[in-house]
Specification:
ATP-binding, DNA polymerase, domain 1, ATP hydrolysis activity, GTP binding, alpha/beta, P-loop_NTPase, 2 domains, nucleotide-binding, 13 helices, 266 residues, three-stranded parallel β-sheet
Length: 266
């Protein structure tokens, strides 16, 4: 098993990223003696499911008792029972929530591990990276979670190459960008995060915000005073700014608009 300490660490995480072996190499022996991504994923998920079932078994009697006097707790208890059924069917709560079977907000207080967002990274070789059918099979295996395919050995080599040689190596294995870049984007998406840019004479910088944050909330990431004193934002599409070359030119072309406190960052 994973061990209580390891499971405790996972419980504190915001998402679960599983790195799964999908490459073949006789010099790298698999613990089970064979490369079987489906089995590897099942082993980990079963451990997480069993841990969640144990948590529910301890909490449910209390919730049902308290729910007799509190409608909100009663609603949570009913949803926890649904969660129990999902887990007993050997499915993650993350997948069940994606299909609308369960409301994770009602079971959030239990900090169930399979309710967290999942992301799968398939450590692959060239045979997998250039085989769209095989990738489709593996994506289907982990759906609705997102899947990323990369070759850890290739990623190491890319760090030592200049841009031209790196592009040539990526083309050879059928990739448009380094796997680590793809993973970073997928990680942000899984966590519900995004970035926005600020640029000035001295520096350009990316700031991390949650998807759905309003402009004042985004400004507050830079400094809380910016959020408190927010009045309006001047907004221009990046493509327009890139084409016109400056905010002044964008204003002259009528490409700049003003947005208020309810503006959601794109």
């Amino acid at each position: 098993g994973m061990g209580n300490a390891f499971l405790a660490n996972i419980r504190e995480a915001d998402a679960i990223c599983q790195v799964v072996r999908a490459f073949s190499d006789d010099n790298v022996i698999h613990v089970d003696g064979r490369v079987d991504p489906a089995n590897d994923i099942s082993v980990i998920n079963t451990e997480l499911i069993l841990a969640d079932l144990q948590t529910i078994e301890k909490a449910l009697p209390r919730l049902e008792k308290e729910g007799r006097k509190d409608k909100d707790i009663a609603a949570s208890a009913a949803e926890v029972k649904k969660a129990q059924s999902v887990l007993e069917d050997d499915r993650t709560l993350f997948a069940a929530a994606k299909s609308g079977e369960i409301d994770l907000a009602l079971v959030r207080d239990l900090h169930l591990m399979t309710a967290k967002p999942f992301l799968y990274v398939f450590n692959s070789d060239e045979a997998v990276l250039t085989d769209e059918a095989r990738q489709a099979e593996l994506r289907e295996l982990v759906a609705p979670a997102e899947a990323v395919f990369l070759d850890a050995q290739t990623e190491t080599e890319l760090l030592e190459l200049d841009d031209a040689d790196a592009a040539e190596l990526l083309a050879a294995v059928g990739q448009d960008e380094p796997g680590l870049a793809t993973l970073a984007k997928a990680g942000f998406d899984t966590l519900g995060l995004q970035t926005y840019l600020t640029a000035g004479p001295k520096e350009s910088r990316a700031w991390t915000i949650r998807k759905g944050d309003t402009a004042p909330k985004a400004a507050g990431v830079i400094h809380t005073d910016f959020e408190k004193g927010f009045i309006k934002a001047e907004v221009v599409a990046f493509d327009d700014l890139d084409q016109l070359g400056s905010m002044a030119e964008a204003r002259a072309a009528g490409k700049v608009r003003q947005e208020g406190k309810d503006y959601v960052m794109a």
